[in-house]
């Protein structure tokens, strides 16, 4: 009669203490989150929380994740340091060690990794603020994960998204999972024009500030007996929503800057989700299709900026980060790695619908990206997670299960 209770008690104790028995007797104290908040071609600036009792710090850097190559140490008296002497485009990893007044090592941080910038910022030009934001309009209404996280229905999230877009100050906004969001288009009409503008808002759409940009248009002639000389003219904006495979779509538009007269194609895209091998292959095919179609449509040979939810990041490993491999082979670089200043760089751009930020110590793990190409005369001034925040959490209700990412570019 007593065998089962004794057995269950023993099993419970084993489970409860098993982790303790297998864990180190004394876990090393940790310096808080180390963040790369500034980058140049030859330096990375890091910040971290003050560690109680620490009087000095040492920043260790290495040219690889395992900390076996290119080891160097920089001393710091406060919780900020700039590591110099780096090579452009090379990724470095960093750790921070804290020391007390007696010079004893008391804590070490988790590693964070960041490349020195590979793309320079033009000395002359104009800044253009961009925003990429997966708003998960109708999709999150049917998502069980979002429901468990406490996300509100789209009708309640819509004003949050609208305020976020208008408050971002962005000149160009790329939205994903924006199906059915035409109510927001009406909300922002005084400030932005919408692409596509034909009433059916698909999974990816674009907004542009009408005071700053206008769509480039093609003029097509056609027979017209009522027109002078029997020839009429149609004006067609250079924009389209394209199919890139697996039911995924992207929207592009060629815009002319009213300040400079220069043209740039902006693209909003949402690639396939999931982490499986099959999904990885789908994202590769979609990225190739996307670039092939945009290149074919780019008859003016304008520079191209890609924005969107690419569903891939460095934590998945180079082999499985197929969008980055395809974009990189074409000369494109993630604006996150090129930005001269960064805000909340280690707050993952995904939230799963919750108010508590998801912190990614090593790479940031941002699936929402802006891509620019080296040689196009585009540099990155800043990158920021601009999800509205209240204290240590995001303000509720959250607008989406993704954070809006604002990237300020400088175009020559």
From TrEMBL:
Name of the protein this chain belongs to: Fibronectin type III domain-containing protein
Q: Which residues form the Fibronectin type-III domain?
A: 30-116
Q: InterPro entries from the xrefs? A: Endo/exonu/phosph_ase_sf, FN3_dom, FN3_sf, Ig-like_fold
Taxonomic lineage of the native organism? Bacteria, Bacillati, Actinomycetota, Actinomycetes, Propionibacteriales
The family database entries (CDD domains) matched by this protein are listed as: FN3
Cited SMART domains? FN3 (SM00060)
Q: Per its UniProt record, what Pfam families does this chain match?
A: fn3
UniProt source species: Aeromicrobium senzhongii
- Asked if the Swiss-Prot or TrEMBL record annotates the protein with the keyword Signal, the reply is yes
Q: Which domain of life is it from?
A: Bacteria
| Keywords, in A-Z order | Carbohydrate metabolism, Glycosidase, Hydrolase, Polysaccharide degradation, Signal
Q: From which residue to which does the signal peptide run?
A: 1-27
